[in-house]
Amino acid sequence: MADPLGNHVIMTEPITPEPTDEGDSDIAATDAAEEDEEELDPFRDDDPTLQGLRNINSLASWTVSTHKPTCGVSALLSPAPHTYWQSDGPQPHTLTIHFFKLVHIAKLRILLDFRKDESYTPTRMQFLAGTGHHDLCEFGGWEGQQPVGWQNVPLDGCGVGGGRGLRCFLVQVRVLENHQNGKDTHVRGVQIFARDGRVSQREDGSDDESDSSGMEMLEEEEAPGKKGGARGKSLFDLKGLGGLDEPDWMRDPIVR
Q: How many CB atoms lie within 10 A of CB 184?
């Protein structure tokens, strides 16, 4: 066949590429990688050790030693992992958590992310507790390199008789060192948990003397020489003896 200029042109049929499974395999590999990355995401809040525990962050007042603008307590307690507390002063950087009543802490953890914070990431922390600032005692410490995700603070041996758990009014976190001797620090979250009394009551059908927020029910001391008597008890404890019903406004708050 010749074109209008007299050149001889050979017509050929277009070649259709044969279908292959390479594209499908690449897509499948990408999906599998995304699934693996999602499974390894350290910020997923699916820790099985949280079963039967309740967050009691809202039952305390939180203060920090120093902070940058918009990077204070509100950013620290935000559920979003991209917000954080950033200090603005000399070390050690302190975070003080003051509960208005005695609590029994069952779990304490701190959220860190070396991938984003680098030299701002804490590598050594100290933990203290007590009834106030005047009697703080060290109960634990933490050291780590390039941490990512929730870091659990060990509470073994902090309870009565060497048991697990911590009873206190005040907890203080001190950041002593940062990665590569960084000056200021980034802490992306702190969570404190107590045992949920409602769960234990549903499981064994018994009444626990601690309420669902981990608050200890402090009983009044009995009168001298009247052990087992009724004089040392409150009127609200004598329901069977014609006592008064405790009004709702006098009960401990329920964390929702």
A: 20
- Per-residue pLDDT tens over the stretch 228-243: 444 455 544 545 444 5
Q: Are 54 and 214 in contact (CB under 8 A)?
A: yes
Closest CA to 189 of 7, 45, 18, 68: 45
Given a contact cutoff of 8 angstroms between Cβ atoms, the answer to whether 143 and 124 are in contact is yes
**Rounded Cα–Cα distance for residues 245 and 71 (Å):** 46
**Count of alpha carbons within 13 Å of 62, Cβ hemisphere only?**
19
Which residues face 53 on adjacent strands?
Answer: 195
Q: What is the pTM of this model?
A: 0.65
- What does the pLDDT look like over 29-59, one tens digit per residue? 555 444 444 444 545 666 788 888 999 999 9
DSSP for residue 70: T
Provide the 10 A C-beta neighbour count for residue 43.
Answer: 14
Give 124-127's long-range contacts (Cβ < 8 A, gap of 24+): 124/175, 124/176, 124/177, 125/173, 125/174, 125/175, 125/176, 126/92, 126/173, 126/174, 126/176, 127/153, 127/171, 127/172, 127/173, 127/174
Chain Cα centroid distance, residue 187: 11
How long, in residues, is the chain?
Answer: 256
Q: Classify 141 as helix, strand or coil.
A: strand
Closest CA to 194 of 172, 166, 152: 166
Q: In this model, does residue 121 exceed pLDDT 90?
A: yes
Judge contact between 176 and 125, C-beta under 8 A. yes
Residues 6+ apart with CB under 8 A from 19: none
